[in-house]
Amino acid sequence: LSFREPARFIFSHSALREGWDNPNVFVICTLKHSDNTVTRRQEVGRGLRLCVNQNGDRIDHPAIVHDVNVLTVVASESYKDFVTALQKDISESLTARPRFATEKYFTGKLLKMDTGDVAVIPRMASQIEFYLIQNGYVDFEKRIVDKYHDAKKDGSIAALPAELAPYAEQVFKLIDSVFSDADLADQFTDERKKRVNPLNANYQKQEFKDLWNKINRKAVYSVHFETDELVGKCVKALDKELKISPLQYTIQRGEQTEQASFDDLKSGDAFVLKDNVTEYNRKSIKSQVKYDLLGKIAETTKLTRSTVAAILQGIRFDTFGQYSVNPEDFLLNAARIINEQKATVIIEHLAYNPVDDTHSSDIFTAAKAKEDFSKAVATPNRHIYDYVFTDSTNEKNFVKELDTSREIVVYAKLPRGFSIPTPVGDYNPDWAIAFEEGKVKHIYFIAETKGSMSSMELRKIEECKIECARKFFTKITSDQVRYEIVTDYAKLMELVK
Question: Cβ(262)–Cβ(228) under 8 Å?
Fold first, then answer.
């Protein structure tokens, strides 16, 4: 696997003719002209494998996995016809994949939260269905339409109802699990006409080199806080915010259809719903099930049992009394509130310490996966590349104004290889900008573009990462460099002026 080996790459000719763990040509498969759908899927599926580096290690880091692990398909038929046929084969076989976004489908599904699973009750399911209808995201048959996918891409997706807002990310994942033909659209390209996005002369400007030298330092973080402080914050938050819902159950009555087939039974369409009613159990639960209250919360919050015990001993009697009403809900919500307070304490006491290592400038020239030029904005004036690939309409407008600004000398959309370590995962800022000296207060600026700067509309994990980034740049740079969230170009200029 050494790069000194004169052979260009090692190719393995196996039964299905796919490449096998090659360091240079990572994954490649050739396709015979065949109408056999099983063979068609096998050839692609066997080709899709994680590549290895020259040491034989799998390349699966989230920051680069999608840039490096790319399947190259050599097809004897036209690539467009092949992809269209393959996707049609797969979509027709997805019998278990729901196609209708209805209250019935959403009810009972589990939302995977950091603090544990949350079941979608009928009221929440009804709100999700009404949200989709109200915003025109489904057609009259309750199928997901292109408007929903376009809104998600542009960042213009409508806000969820207040009750669903805390679970926004998980709710959208649940909606995305409903099959939509739009999922298969625009997925094929012709690699023979591949376009590249080269670095231009702006990359060599001294202003960009100075900016890069100021922000490329690496650092490690440490957190020191007193247990009593965390306990006090958690006690106050639990007494104020913990509200446990009584157990509810739904009784449904229906009749089996006369001509019910095996497929109807399997899909749940063999019975017609005639009547349903929701009841609540507001009495204390008497059960033989033993709950490890301390152990479960300690496991979810990564705190010691003694710390969890101190928190529960400190809350009011009526707050702890809710445990008997619904133990499962108590465990989930108490752990969520404690985790939120823990994140707040971490941010308050987080410290970064610079190390001798730096980010290499090679991250700007590293090989990239196939890029979608339909989302590209031409940047001939001040960006270090010829194009910028944007994620939303907001970013697209921001780039156009950056590239025509007289106050800006050079700017870059930072690659994913530039990341900052935080207690809640690595963080990658959006933009690095160098301004004309003498025209602004802050010559160098690191920006994160968001559609809204309201902390209520930012996910807790995003908010935590942003606060960590502020501390990181404050530590490793001078007062000439500033890091902030901006909504548009006007807000950027307001901050640097």
Answer: no
Query: CA of 142: how far to CAs of 123, 182, 240, 269, 408, in Å?
Result: 18, 14, 39, 16, 48
Question: Which residue is associated with the tokens 């199928």?
Answer: 143
Q: Strand (E) positions, 32-161?
A: 71-75, 110-113, 116-119
Q: What is the pLDDT of residues 150-199, one digit of tens each?
A: 888 777 888 888 888 888 888 888 888 886 655 555 444 555 455 678 88
Q: Report pLDDT digits (tens) over 436-491.
A: 887 777 678 888 887 554 443 456 667 888 888 889 998 888 777 888 888 888 88
Classify residue 446 as exposed, middle or buried by CB count within 10 Å of its CB (0-12, 13-18, 19+): buried
pLDDT band at 235 (very low <50, low <70, confident <90, very high): very high
Q: Which helix (H) or strand (E) holds 396?
A: helix 393-404
Rounded Cα distance, 441 and 480, in Å: 8
Distance CA 41, CA 32 (A): 12
Residue 122 phi, psi (nearest 5)? -55, -40
- Residue 105, CA atoms < 13 Å, CB-side half-sphere: 19
DSSP code of 357?
E
**What stretches of 48-121 show up as alpha helix (H) in DSSP?**
65-68, 79-93, 103-106
